[in-house]
Amino acid sequence: MSSQFEFLSTSDKPALIAFSNPEWLETARASLLELGYKVHTAATHADFFNRFSQVRYEVVLIEECFAANNIEENHTLHGMQRMPMSQRRHTTVILIGDSFQTFTPMQAFQHSVHAVISSSEIFLLKQLVEKSVADNDLFHHSFREAHARATSATAG
Questions:
Q1: DSSP 3-state of 69
Q2: Helix %, strand %, coil % for the chain, to 5?
Q3: Taking residues 11-22, what's their average pLDDT?
Q4: Do 61 and 37 contact (CB within 8 A), yes or no?
Q5: Cα-only R_g, the chain
Q6: Which pTM does this prediction carry?
Q7: Main-chain dihedrals φ then ψ at residue 59, nearest 5 degrees
Q8: Domain ranges for the chain
Q9: Contact 66, 77 (CB under 8 A)
Q10: Residue 83: pLDDT above 90?
Q11: String of b and e for 111-149 (b: at least 16 CB within 10 Å)?
């Protein structure tokens, strides 16, 4: 198996993009790079899961129709939905597509992601990713704090 991963340090912020649309891919890559993320791009569903299993990504952006004709055929999205929370808790998952209204909580919940973004607002992707990550961090803050206390209590 050939590995095309670059070395990541503890201070790096890795992000993974799964897009078929080249324009959206470039917009997403540029936005994430501007936010200071090290960006990896998945070319196929298998490539996505191979990468996701090897790197602890902070942000994952998935196109609604990534390597598929419609959302029902998006194996990457369905694979993420079936993944146990312990495997994806550290990641902010954002779904982007034509059929979404940006930051609609029920659509995000329906697709088991943290946020949905309308493709018509992709020009605001940098700000929308920042907000999604901040909202996810705020949501998980108490859990992470309690987990850290429990871990340090059992280690000592």
A1: coil
A2: 50, 15, 35
A3: 95
A4: no
A5: 16
A6: 0.87
A7: -135, 135
A8: 14-155
A9: yes
A10: yes
A11: bbbbbbbbbeebeebbebbeebbeebeeeeeeeeeeeee
